[in-house]
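U., I forgot to send this yesterday:
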Amino acid sequence: MNLLVISQMFPCRRHPTSAIFFANLMKELAKRVRSLTVVTPRAYIPKGLTKLNKRWSRWRLDPMVSTEKGIRIIRPYVFTIPGPAFTGLNSLFMNVGLKRLLEDVTVKPDIDLILGYNMLPEGCSTVHLAKKFDLPSAFWAIGSDVHDFAQRNWLNYHLSRKCIEQADLILTESQELEFEVKKFSNRIKQIKTFYKGIDLSYFRDHPPKPVILQILNLKPGRRYLLFVGRLIRDKGIHELVQSFKNLAQRYADLDLILVGEEDEKSKLRAELEQAGLLQRVVFTGIISQQDVARYMNVAEMLVFPSWAEGLPNAVMEAMAAGLPVVASDVGGIPEIVVNGVSGLLVSPRNVAALTKAVDLMLQNEDLRASCRRNAECLIRKKFDVRRNVDELCALLQMLQNSKRCLAWKREFALSIK
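Result:
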């Protein structure tokens, strides 16, 4: 099978960890298919404008075409309007921008199937282009595309619904997300929850804790709460900081580590400085998956109070690392974090409940140990990327075969007329 994938999110020089779990899945899939091409559109910014903002110049760091671990990667420029409200419009721009490219790509090698990662804009573009080239199409619904982007305006909703009805297969990150997608239409061809899984090798054979603390330049004798994700309001980051302010008064040895894109770092720093706690918080920015695993090996727990989610990779990573989890009971999180069994769940936007749960986990060593055991067992059984990729390969092969069968039936019907 020759597979074409469309995804704006993919590791690059500008953002080395972008959709790293999806990329790991694709690396495993590349070993099982004849060819795998990833088209990862990037925003078109005129070269002259990059002089006005150094961050814009980072969009031009990667080559147009490269090959990495058996995957051919193409990074075309596509006109893009920033902001979730414009994802529908951006899918139309993507259709135009990728049509000429796909006309070249589908000739050599022949493409058997197009897979999009994210409903808006990639999924909509995938379905449109697959229809144009008479190919089977599938896309992934991952969370914010369904919960947020599709609900922003009429165009986003209309294109999402059309995409959902025309796709040959829809994959969702969680059962909760599958339920939400089904609300868009009762004319869905095929939908299935598929867990991408994680690369468990990152969480094996780490050096002793004192060595890791030294590598990360962290103080020994401290206890660390860990957050992994973008530092934005919707991730519950302000509730986390407020909760930490409450807990820091009770636990003099407690510090906080914030890992991820630092969108609201200045606001958080100001709040922490006012509370006299800035020196007890570590901001790491974007770091490698290996370093994320290191932080998870020295932290007391992952605290993940997000307002809305699909199935967050950070939670799966923490569970694989044997790190207790306190998370909000939203999206697909309750599918892997069973309250009191493999972690603790709290209502989103509830500082008091979050503080109470973190406090309980800090105090109860037996609870931490049982959550650690149960979480590791679940992740290794259901979320190993090397095992799950075989299921994905079988699904895509069935989709390709069914599409071929329909084509043969059409040809036969025409031949006997």
